[in-house]
């Protein structure tokens, strides 16, 4: 009897152990099966950070051939996982804010933009503020902005002599600030306060350093000047807004759109919010556009074939419309559009886009490999690297605007996220049409009115800038065309 009960106990124990093992396995095995992305080899603790700081694109160029399109870099106490190429980056661009958010990674903008806007507010408020941006950049508004763009370009280049030599980079930077001031900040700033406001924006700009990304409130002179400039700008705009409201005057500029904007609950925007949104718009659009204008010029001046094609397009448009240039005529400049787009493919000013992941997700590479990205990782993709992938773009380092023509359409061949100079998906650039119109307005004026020649060597990339641009001067000799 005793032997039987012992046998029974052993049997029960065996079954219980098997059941327990099965339950534990059910919980543990999927975890152990997680396929984490390969990790970049680096010295312990700070090795990853050093490689990143030395140059993220250099690191990507070295690691992509070894590790493929998905890999992780350890950055001290954070992991950053790179998703390179359209096959693996769809989730990056399309995920909801609860899964992949911008707020944490772009938090360093808060002291520059100011309180109560963009990355300082919950996503629901931010979405409403982005609706204000969208409204202010609709076609009916853009049509009015284009008139300002044309006027500013004509006035600016009328000050050039009949012939001479200029640093094209500096000239275009200046013109873009003038145009952006007129279209975004309004005529009060453009006509009366331009020097003061430009100087304040300069201080804001200089207050955004690589160190500011990690320590945005570090008590250094550049941050102190940034904070003072932000305060003064708020005062200037408060005065302008009050005066507009009192006079009942309504202008066609982004400032007016923000003043007139209302949240869903009926609350109008405050003066501080309007100032913050304008600063955000200027930060998003100014350097990016002036850098792209300069690269476009540098490439056209070094490529006879494409230069001839854009000049020909201008001649055809003059035949068709006379000297007039407006929104619809700019929209007909497809050859120029492709030349700008190609300069921007090779040189996207925002080289790295970031998100913070709040839930696990899986990506499948084009080779069919699955990787599980755990929540808590920073997730990154790189326009500067992905825009030159040879399986998407033929001869990726060659300036070839025809790749976007109707027969090739390389920007679409591998799906929506093949060409990502303007990002894409949920947070795609809201200012893309504005940027193209502005750059086209400038270049159509230059092409119609001047013979141009690049007299300095083809420019290099300034990798050290926060918004990656053109290194050094871009010297151009110009001669005003004698118009028949
Ligand atoms: C050549 C010029 C420009 C380039 C290359 C550019 C590039 C970009 C990129 C890559 C993003 C996505 C950022 C991300 O996903 O993290 C973005 C977003 C944005 N851009 Fe632009 N941009 C340009 C001009 C402009 C202009 C002129 C404006 C406004 C006047 C503007 C307003 C915005 C805004 C508001 C967003 C945020 C959209 C969102 O998060 O929903 N951009 N831009």
UniProtKB/TrEMBL annotation:
EC number: 1.14.14.154
Coiled coil location: none
GO CC terms, sorted: membrane
Gene3D superfamilies attached to this UniProt entry: Cytochrome P450 (1.10.630.10)
Entry's family note: Belongs to the cytochrome P450 family.
Binding site for heme: 429
TM region positions: 7-29
Entry's localization field: Membrane
Provenance organism: Lactuca sativa
Keyword Ribosomal protein (UniProt): no
Alphabetic keyword roster: Heme, Iron, Lipid biosynthesis, Lipid metabolism, Membrane, Metal-binding, Methyltransferase, Monooxygenase, Oxidoreductase, Steroid biosynthesis, Steroid metabolism, Sterol biosynthesis, Sterol metabolism, Transferase, Transmembrane, Transmembrane helix
Alphabetized GO MF terms: heme binding; iron ion binding; methyltransferase activity; oxidoreductase activity; sterol 14-demethylase activity
Membrane topology of this protein: Single-pass membrane protein
Predominant location: membrane
Catalytic activity: a 14alpha-methyl steroid + 3 reduced [NADPH--hemoprotein reductase] + 3 O2 = a Delta(14) steroid + formate + 3 oxidized [NADPH--hemoprotein reductase] + 4 H2O + 4 H(+)
Protein name per Swiss-Prot or TrEMBL: sterol 14alpha-demethylase
């Amino acid at each position: 009897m005793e032997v039987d009960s012992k046998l029974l106990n052993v049997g029960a124990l065996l079954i219980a152990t098997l059941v327990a093992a099965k339950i534990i396995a059910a919980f543990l095995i999927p975890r152990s099966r997680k396929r984490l992305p390969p990790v970049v080899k680096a010295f312990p603790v700070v090795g990853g950070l050093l490689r990143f700081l030395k140059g993220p694109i250099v690191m990507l160029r070295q690691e992509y051939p070894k590790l493929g399109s998905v890999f992780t870099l350890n950055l001290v106490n954070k992991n950053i996982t790179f998703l390179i190429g359209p096959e693996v980056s769809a989730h990056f661009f399309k995920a909801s804010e609860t899964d992949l958010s911008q707020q944490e990674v772009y938090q360093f903008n808060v002291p520059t933009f100011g309180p109560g806007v963009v990355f300082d507010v919950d996503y629901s408020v931010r979405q409403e503020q982005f609706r204000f941006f969208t409204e202010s950049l609709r076609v009916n508004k853009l049509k009015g902005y284009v008139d300002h763009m044309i006027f500013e370009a004509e006035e600016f280049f009328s000050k050039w002599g009949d012939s001479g030599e200029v640093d094209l980079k500096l000239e275009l930077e200046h013109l873009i600030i003038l145009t952006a001031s007129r279209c975004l900040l309004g005529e009060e700033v453009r006509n009366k306060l331009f020097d003061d406001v430009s100087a304040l924006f300069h201080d804001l700009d200089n207050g955004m350093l690589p160190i500011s990304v990690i320590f945005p409130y570090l008590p250094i002179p550049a941050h102190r000047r940034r904070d003072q400039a932000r305060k003064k700008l708020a005062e200037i705009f408060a005065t302008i807004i009050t005066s507009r409201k009192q006079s009942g005057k309504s202008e066609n500029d982004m400032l007016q759109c923000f003043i007139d904007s209302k949240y869903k609950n009926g609350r109008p925007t405050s003066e501080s919010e309007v100032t913050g949104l304008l600063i955000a718009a200027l930060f998003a659009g100014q350097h990016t556009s002036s850098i792209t204008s300069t690269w476009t010029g540098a490439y056209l001046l070094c490529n006879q074939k494409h230069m001839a094609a854009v000049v020909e397009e201008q001649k055809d448009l003059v035949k068709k419309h006379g000297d007039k240039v407006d929104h619809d005529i700019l929209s007909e400049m497809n050859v120029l559009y492709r030349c700008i787009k190609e300069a921007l493919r090779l040189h996207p000013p925002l080289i790295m886009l970031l998100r913070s992941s709040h839930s696990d997700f899986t990506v499948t590479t084009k080779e069919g490999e699955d990787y599980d990205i755990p929540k808590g990782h920073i997730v990154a993709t790189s326009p500067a690297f992905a825009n030159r992938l040879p399986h998407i773009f033929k001869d990726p380092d060659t300036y070839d605007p025809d790749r976007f023509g109707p027969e090739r359409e390389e920007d679409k061949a591998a799906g929506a996220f093949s060409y990502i100079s303007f990002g894409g998906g949920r947070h795609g650039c809201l200012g893309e049409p504005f940027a193209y119109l502005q750059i086209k307005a400038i270049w159509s004026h230059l092409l119609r009115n001047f013979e141009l020649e690049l007299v300095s060597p083809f420019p290099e990339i300034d990798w050290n800038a926060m918004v990656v641009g053109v290194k050094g001067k871009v010297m151009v000799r110009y001669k005003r065309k004698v118009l028949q």
